[in-house]
Amino acid sequence: MLKIRPECENDYVEVENLVRNAFWNVYRPGAYEHYILHHLRNDERFIKKLAYVIECDGKIVGNINYSMGVIEYDDGKIDAAVLGPIAVHEDCQDRGLGSRLIRYTLDLAR
């Protein structure tokens, strides 16, 4: 059974391990996305109310995060929510779980 819920502090270690494993050797040797997430949670730009996990039978198999950023144009700039990192456990990829997290949290962000 799938369940999407807000991330809580007790999830941090499990989520960081999930993020590390999901990105391990994907874009470069090793991974550092879990390290970025670890520090992002303490950044004032982190949007805690949009940090969510997806569970399958009580085990966290996905995570999504957002932070505030800026889009600059020739004639100005606007604030924008920036998605990432998002990660899905390697055994659960290609099943639409990441897309479900994105759709769910984008609806909340509106």
Structure description:
The protein is of the alpha+beta class and 110 residues long. The protein has a single domain, classed as Aminopeptidase (3-Layer(aba) Sandwich). 30% of the residues lie in helices and 35% in strands. It has a 4-stranded antiparallel beta sheet. Helix 1 packs antiparallel against helix 2. The longest helix is centred in the C-terminal third of the chain and has 13 residues. The protein is globular. The two termini are 27 Å apart. The model has no long low-confidence stretch (mean pLDDT 96).
Defining traits:
110 residues, alpha+beta, Aminopeptidase, globular
Total strand segments: 4
Range of helix content: 25-40%
CATH topology: Aminopeptidase
CATH homologous group name: Gcn5-related N-acetyltransferase (GNAT)
What letter string, H or E per element, gives the SSE order? EHHEEEH
Task: State the CATH architecture.
Answer: 3-Layer(aba) Sandwich
> What is the overall number of helices?
3
Strand content: 25-35%
Largest sheet: 4 strands, antiparallel
Spatial ordering of strands, largest sheet: 1-2-3-4
Q: Would you tell me the overall average pLDDT?
A: 96
Determine the N-to-C terminus distance. 27 Å
Radius of gyration: 14 Å
The structural class is alpha+beta
Unreliable residue runs? none
